[in-house]
Structures are given as C-alpha cells and as structure tokens.
Amino acid sequence: MVAYATRERQYLWAVDVPADATIADTIEAARQLADEPDVPWETAPVGIFGEARERSDRPAEGDRVELYRPLPGDPRDRRRERVQKQRKAGGK
Fold first, then answer.
1. Is 50 left (phi over 0), alpha (psi -120 to 50) or beta?
2. 91: pLDDT confidence band, cut at 50, 70 and 90?
3. Which one of 13, 24, 41, 72 is at 20 to 30 Å from 64 when CA atoms are compared?
4. ∠39-3-36 over CA atoms, to 5°?
5. Is 22 helix (H, G, I), strand (E, B) or coil?
6. 54-70: average pLDDT
7. What gap in Å lies between CA 88 and CA 1, rounded to an integer?
8. For 52-59, which contacts have Cβ atoms below 8 Å and span 24 or more sequence positions?
9. Can you give the pTM of this predicted structure?
10. 3 Cβ neighbours under 8 A, 6+ residues apart
C-alpha cells in the first residue's frame, strides 16, 4: 500500500511488488497505477507507518509506504509564536 495525503484528499494505492522490492520500487508501482501528476513521486520524503525511511529500504509485506508533503512551518515554532502572543496579551 502506498499513501499520500493533501489537505483536500487522501490517496491510497494497493500495489503488488516482489518480496525484494525497495520503497522506490513500490512507489514506482503506485505511480504506474495512479493518474496523479501532482503527487511528488520523486522528491517527497518517504516512510513506513510514520517512520522516515530511505528509498533503498525494503518494506515488509503489509507495510504502508508513505509519501510526505512538507509542513507549512515547524509546529514547534508555531506553538512558540502562539505562546508569545498569549503572554503579550496578558493570558497564560
């Protein structure tokens, strides 16, 4: 299974690959099934079940290979900004 999500939609492609296939092979199999040119097939960071991986790694049977999109900003930085604004406004 290969997964990619945007704010508007989640994409899931079920693919069959040989046991010795790499993450890159699995993504390429999904790319062949999908008619989605806007998915960053070659440039997106990848992982398995939320854990970052290299494209040369081999997924196990049943693993969900994920293509990640960049975050608009570091969530920690956004939280710090919110806290600073609250403190300036007199809140906790």
1. left
2. low
3. 72
4. 30
5. coil
6. 95
7. 47
8. 53/23, 54/23, 55/22, 55/23, 55/24, 55/27, 56/22, 56/23, 56/24, 57/22, 57/23, 58/20, 58/21, 58/22, 58/23, 59/21, 59/23, 59/26
9. 0.76
10. 10, 11, 12, 13, 64, 65, 66, 67
Question: Beta strand pairing status for 10-13 and 2-5?
Answer: antiparallel
Look up residue 59 and give its two tokens.
Answer: 């997924």
**What would the two tokens of residue 64 be?**
């969900």
For residues 80 and 75, give the distance between their C-alpha atoms in angstroms, rounded to a whole number. 9
The residue written with tokens 């989640």 in the block is 10
Residue 41 is classified by DSSP as: T
Length of the chain: 92
